Amino acid sequence: MASTIKVGCRLPQGIRLRVFEPGKDAFGENVLNEIGEVALAGSGRHVAAPGGLDGKDDDGVAFTDADADLWAKWFKQNEKSDLITSGAVFEKGKQPKDDPAAENEAAAQASTQSQAKRRP
């Protein structure tokens, strides 16, 4: 049995994350072959009644069980996309925005670097 992880989605309508691998067609041309997809449930925040719907936490996030290997491949192909950098899609427990200490540490480092550049 394949292992699964929880993937969070803050988009109201959800999203389908498609995973591709390079290959060749019958004529030897380079193509991308779809090897799978992860259909993430949406938060439904724009239509949800107070209290939300099943599977949602208090932050308007819907979590979906996803195949861990497929998610890892999709993440590797898309780690710099706006979906990831904005926090709209993330693996549960691996989102920097969920950790206030990490945010404070990053802000302190930026401040220290800025002050170091100003010194003669």
TrEMBL record:
Compositionally skewed regions (Basic and acidic residues) per UniProt: 91-100
Compositional bias of kind Low complexity: 103-120
Span list, region Disordered: 85-120
Name of the molecule in the record: Uncharacterized protein
Source species: Methylorubrum populi
Lineage, broadest ranks: Bacteria, Pseudomonadati, Pseudomonadota, Alphaproteobacteria, Hyphomicrobiales
